[in-house]
Amino acid sequence: MLVYLAKRLIMMIPLLIGITLISFVVIHLAPGEPTDMQTDLNPKSSVEMRDRLRQQYNLDKPLHVQYGLWLKQIATLDFGESFAQDHRPVLDKISERMPITIFINVLSIVVILAVAVPIGILSAVRRNSMFDRGTTIFVFLGFAMPSFWLALLLMDYFGVRLGLFPVAGLKSIGYDYMSPAQQLWDMARHLIMPVFVSAFGGLAGFSRYMRSNMLEVIRQDYILTARAKGLSERVVIYKHALRNALLPVITILGLSVPGLIGGSVIFETIFAIPGMGKLFYDGVMMRDYPLIMGILVIGAVLTLVGNLLADISYAMADPRIRKG
Amino acid sequence: MRFVLIALLFLLSACEQQQAVVPAEGEAAKPVHGDTFIEASIGEPNNLLPVLSSDSASSDINRLVYNGLIRYDKNLQLEGELAESWEISEDQLTITFHLRKNVTWHDGAPFTSADVLFTYQMYINPDVPTSYAEDFLQVARAEAPDPYTFRVTYKKPYAPALESWGTAIHPKHLLENEVNSKTITKSPLARSPIGTGPYTFFKWDAGEKVELLANPDYFEGQPYIHRVVYRVIPDTSTQFLELQSGGLDFMGLTPIQFKTQTDTPAFAGNFSKYRYLSFSYTYLGYNLTKPLFQDQRVRQAITYAINKQELIDGVLLGLGQAATGPYKPDTWVYNGKVKRYAFDPGKSRALLAEAGWTDSDGDGILDRGGDKLAFTIVTNQGNDLRSKTAEIIQRRLKEVGIVVEIRVVEWATFLKEFIFTGNFDATILGWSGGPEPDQYNIWHSSKTAPRELNFVKFKNQEVDDLLEKGRRTFDRAERKQIYDRFQEILAEEQPYTFLYVGEALPAVAKRFRGIEPSPAGITYNFIKWWVPKSEQKYAR
């Protein structure tokens, strides 16, 4: 097991370098540079000034030199300074956006699990019933509905017409003057619609996955044995079947680790939530290379770690894999 | 130069108020302090050091935190801000500013001419990554003979110079070390600015909002509105919903919002709408290096074939005016007597025939020597008004037998692959300007190098002379003559088809009093806006 772990860890290093190299080249292939955004079509800006800016950012050097410089920097865990006009360290920019993104994504995964798992189990047990069909329509509605559209409808109805929830943002204007309990309630009110919208779209995947797992498990011989022993249907389903059907969920959870920091541009834009998705999108639009690379590196590391964790925990949970 | 951006958003003119604000009885007379004003921007401000930033969110905030030496008043005349008065020397090379006394920075330090000199030196310092050095590079010598006098001498008379001193003045005592050690980009002032302006910086919640508080020591008196909040709301539909739900007090509306989505009694009860022409215009520019567009008759024919009023009605829902040149119709420099091209497909076809383009094979498309009359209009993605404009023009030109294709391209790619490489036939774009009429960078033949702004490669000796003379002349009457002739030439030659000037359409919550529409728009007197005690919404 330890040898296996060490091998996996060592393999990650060339993989990471490969990912960064490809990302670096692809980003630089896109036309336009960070300096263009500041100087182009600006009647008060001259060509000399643009060259001056390019020099300051090392953009006048050949690509492989730029990559070398970046790699050297990253080896000391220095993500560099953003090319945007705020010139802030990339790590600062990422770390102020990360908590809220992770928070919302964890909340929405919890909601998805809490709703999708029961739906999946029940539709498997009562296959082809009205409940199965009804929930299928419901979850696919969520899957198919554009999130920005749903968000705008909810905002118009609950925010403007009923005035129940705030339309967008994370805190009210008077947040700083509230008591801690009021602050908590204020945050919660702001989060209800965003979490609902992001969870609604994710229901379909999880519940269908759960349903098909469950269907497969129910057909197994040991379920037949359990029933033959005269166990109640409740115990058969929730004790013997469910445990086995939940195993693959570990893999999915492992795979969703990088997604936790991913965020979504559309959704964050609509709800005015300062998350990672918007940060990355703006970075790309500004051709803010250090920021883009920083987010990609963190994403790549998390993906690799997530995979590793999923494999390890799967092995721990399932003796067949551990021993085989 | 800050004014370009401010002009785009706020210095607007020819106001027409939609609904008169009726002051509550008894409260009309006496302005009181208090309440909060909330507006939104689609992007987070980049940097609150004006020398380093060029985005509109940052300039909106910096406008309240910093002062320039001079500014435009409500009638778009220059008036002193940090400067009490100024003199221009006989030879028009030297400007002497007499500064206000008793002005302090937000940290209590006194403001002196050393700060002005420092600001100038910072802008021209090659180690400071600013995009705004151009105006200041024209300066030959700057000096501060005493703490309240600042004198600047130019190499040649330079009329846009005065306007350029509207640039925010930066505090020397807080930035000097950073500039000397080349670490200006790491200055803490970028995130918590200290200026001399009517509002002081209070706090910045990254990605959420920036808050400013009224400066009790402001030299023109403490502003009435206690707090100003800039919320970051990237989506304009969300902004509009926030406005309706009371989460915003101010928003620039789109034509469709102005016309059809705000005519409810609820909206009219809570908001006042204003409209005035903005300092920007949209044009169809021709690449004059292409043989097709080198023929002036072809350019004129295309202008005749385009119905500008139809564009205004269709794209701007009537909220705009036809453009005839690079200046806004209600400014002193605008020449209303230039050649106009009323919509006339017949004349268009006649001109094209004169240029040799006829429909010889009867397929409805004009041709000459076997070539079809066809070209591509390229414009940038993300500007709905421009792509709609392109589609309407496409249909009108088809009627006179010209085939037009439209390409809509992402902004960076658009500039790099099409505009700056000269790899385009025609393009729909816009320029925004301000009260200063100098157009040297856009029309002078020396500005045709790659990445420079005369990318249609317009070259005309007389225009070159006029533009050079225009920026060396201070006398307004003389300048008027120069720029009148400049507009005549542009109207005759049609290097662009000047399409339309749009309108700014702000909506402001009704509880705000003291708004006086003027040629400069509405926000020029923001520090005099106030809310009656009984209507104040935010206690703190």
Question: Quick summary of this structure?
Answer:
The complex is a heterodimer of chains A (324) and B (540). Chain A is mostly helical and 324 residues long. Helices cover 77% and strands 0% of the residues of chain A.
Level-2 CATH architecture of the largest domain in chain B:
Roll
- End-to-end gap of chain B: 35 Å
Major sheet attributes of chain A: none
Flag low-confidence runs of chain B: 1-27
Mind telling me the CATH class of the largest domain in chain B? Alpha Beta
| CATH topology-level name of the largest domain in chain B | Dipeptide-binding Protein, domain 3
Determine the mean pLDDT of chain A: 84
- Could you say which structural class the secondary elements and strand pairing of chain A correspond to? mainly alpha
State the helix count of chain A: 15
Number of E-type strands of chain B: 21
Which regions of chain A are unreliable across 5 or more consecutive residues at pLDDT < 50?
none
What would the average pLDDT of chain B be, to the nearest integer? Answer: 89
Helix content of chain B: 25-40%
Largest interface: A-B, 56 and 60 residues
Using only C-alpha atoms, the radius of gyration of chain B works out to: 25 Å
